Amino acid sequence: MAPRHTLPSWTLLLTVCAIGIGGTFQYGYNVSIINAPTQHIHKFLNETWSSRYQKELNPDLLTFLWSVIASIFSLGGLCGALIGGSMAIRLGRKGALLMNNLIAILASILMGISFPTGLFELLIAGRFLIGINSGVGLCVQPLYIGEFAPKHLRGGLAMGTSIFLTGGILTGQIIGLRELLGGEKHWPLLLSSSCIPALAQLLFLPWFPESPRYLLIDRGDELSCLKALKRFHGSSEYRREMEDIQRECFALDGEKPKKPWQLFTDRGVRWQLITVIVMTIGQQLSGINAIYFYAIYVFEQAGILAEKIPYVTLGTGVCECLTALSCGLLIDYVGRRCLIIGGYLLMTLWCTVLTFSLTYQELYSWMPYLSMACVFAFILSFGLGPGGITNTLTAELFVQSSRPAAYMIAGTVSWISFFTVGMLFPFIVNGLKQYCFVVFLLECFFVAAFIFLIIPETKNKSFLEIKKEFHKLNFGRNARKKETELYERRQLQDEFLKNSA
Known about the structure:
The chain is mostly helical and 501 residues long. The protein is built from 25 helices and no strands. The longest helix has 33 residues. The N terminus is likely disordered.
């Protein structure tokens, strides 16, 4: 077994950075930057409509057009999730990300020229394309990292997905300040700045290897796999990783990558799939969107001036970044179960406290400060648990043939949940007011209970060992028979490895 405290090589760390800058960073960045120029885009829509049709834009139509610009990103993300797995299989993990950058560059051009050309339709098209880019990135990045990371460092390296996502949100908040690119003159540059991460990835990622698992299991290229492993792990450590990949390859016995619909009929991954769907929906419905919605109100009640609130909001972005980094450092020591269950339980607690503090906001002078503390505590708990661990577990619960399809399903569920929450959330808040957090605290508690009862600890385990953990759940009484078959297959595999050595 690899030493538990071995540090990752520079090649591993730099590869994660090269993947992340054009992967989940784009998602976080583009979710964040659209908020700053809202009023300027409204003005652009009004002026364009007036010059084109010589009449004022109806307020209801203005609201509709803005809703389309904001929400078309989610539709693009859904499309990206649906094609991301197929791109990763056909082009390779690295090839899929490199091709994905061309979509981001085209989106940036369309958004950048929409203002000078007076065509708001280009802005809509650009937001749709950058949504596709984000959907592909969210699917392929954790898939890629999860496949080349050694098992004793897999959690920490896979947290690069969340670190770059939260880094993208924070960067978007900073760049979107009115003193930088959030002002009236520069907002087209703000929206088109998505091309910079794309160009950075096109420049740096080609220098790093493809996923060794993809090279050997999917393409059967043992020589390229060995070269990639040597670069990732060094000449002294690569053999252990090679043996692990060969075991998985032998166990799969030439099985081709599965389609998403095939997973729904495969009894061998039934509970893994249920787990991923529950965790993904739980992440989106956890109440994090409600927290951000109420954050501005809470800050106002605490006496913070309206013009200073954007700067205070940066604190929430900093919180997310710090917790993602902390989670990356803790995950391979504490374990996945402890962090994600603890995160959900803490979120349940903060939802309870926030419900009371918002209800009695006017009675006590210190209540607004308690509410503000709850906002930051909830964000910290989310980043330390569900925000960071969900994508990591998705990579770990499936073997090579099922993993791309699993990410396509998880991505689809995530984007549909994201869109649904965006549509229903205003009605929930208007109807329940601060009591909406009662719904979220119940959801957080039930997801924590599900994870406690169903998901085994995956720390320091190979993908085949994790698959074995789920056999009793998936096959019930037939589990012993399946375990015997697996044991016999492993014996044959060990003989094969000895003979080939």
